[in-house]
Amino acid sequence: ANQLRSKDPEKNVRGLVAVTNRAVQPGTVSGINSEGLVPLIVAHLSSDIEAIVQYAVWALNNLALQPDGPKVFEGTGAFAAYAKVIAGTADMDVLRRSCNSLTAIGREQSCLSEIVSSSVIPALVNRISKSGSTGETDLLLQPLSELCLYKSTQEKFIAANGAAVVLSLVGEMALVEKVAALLSLLTIHHVSAIDALMKSQGLQFLLDMAFGYGSQRMVEYGFASVLNIGLNEHSEHYLLEKGAIAYIVGLMALDRPDIVERGAVLLTNILSHSDGRESIRHLDWMDIFEDQLGTASGRPLYLAIRSLINLTHDDFCREVIIRRNLEMKILAAEKKISDGSVCDILLGNLKVAVPDQVKAEVTSKLPLEPLSSAISSIKASIGSRRPSFAPVAPTFPIVLGGSTASVAPKPKTTTLSAPEVSTRSVATSTSPSNSSSTASSKAESKIDSDLDNLLANVEGTATAPPPASTSSDLSDLDALLAAADDAKAA
To answer: Which of 150, 178, 278, 383 has the largest count of CB atoms under 10 Å?
Structure first.
């Protein structure tokens, strides 16, 4: 401590070296902290002597990478000091160790207010915008993925024009996975972040990834982002505008109940709106829903029935369902779910008469566009927009949270029940009003899409770990849909 307080640079260096070597040993962090050494080391980050800054960065890096290290940075002014280092250093080793330390301590909640009050996030964004080196930019992206986990830090990132700056790096193939990871974080919390992504075309990039463009990990980020976007009522219309409804319905053809379930929750939300139901009219979606009625069970089947209930609120879609004569399959499905009242709701809604002009319109529009054709068209547009990205088959090895649900009261058989809506992100949304409804409903179903599960908290990095479940037998979405079309044609 005396050496660190000394005005003699040589003594400062000796003290910093001593802490650096001591911090390598496990279990020494609490002792170093109790002796009041951490604030003294942080103060040396502002030294005019580059060698002292180097040793201070090294000592703090060793502390930060210990399991109990991040907590000792609270109240030390470290983030403000690191902001100055990031902005001013020309030493790549100093930059690398600073970024490693910020990566390790960036998600420490006890330091959250200090992160927000400091200029460390703007400093990282500003240096990225001026960097001409892929290696340097790669270092700077690492701590941003940890610092931007929270709503308040994301607001800081957005205010610094971070979304646009980071999105400008998409053309750098060595950086694109980190770009996808960072931008996907912005879909977690709040409307202002999604607005920023829309303005910077970041959502388009993530949606392209969800459709299978980029590495497998990028597809994971894209898929999780689409789920988050869909749980935000403000941005559901964006998904419709970009044609993602075909992709979301297509998820229900995958041989993965967990993906089917989460896709069905998203679809239920979208179909609770009239424009969502209108967006699906031109697609031949009934094959997938009819298959779900016959083969699915439990929650995936329950959610598929809820989506069908919402579809019955559109006269065109209701007529398409009625023409399939699904009464027996719906009655059979009732025995495969814990709450069969949704089947009664669906059957009741299907008894509501469809206007003659709508029946004629349905007849004139048949056959409807196959889902595989719609998805192929979207992928073709993505391929022309992002020629450097090769498409991959979606396997979506993502671990997401579970869900619970409640069902509406049984309606009268001559009127439509209100569309069912799932909980979106944090706030619970309510059922839309419907003039012909005699019963309102609200189904609660929370998806925990926090990309914390996809980002590892490891020493000096912010890369995605292997997923907990990596089923290799998941069928390709395109192949499944094409096979279904072939079978129908035959």
So the answer is: 178
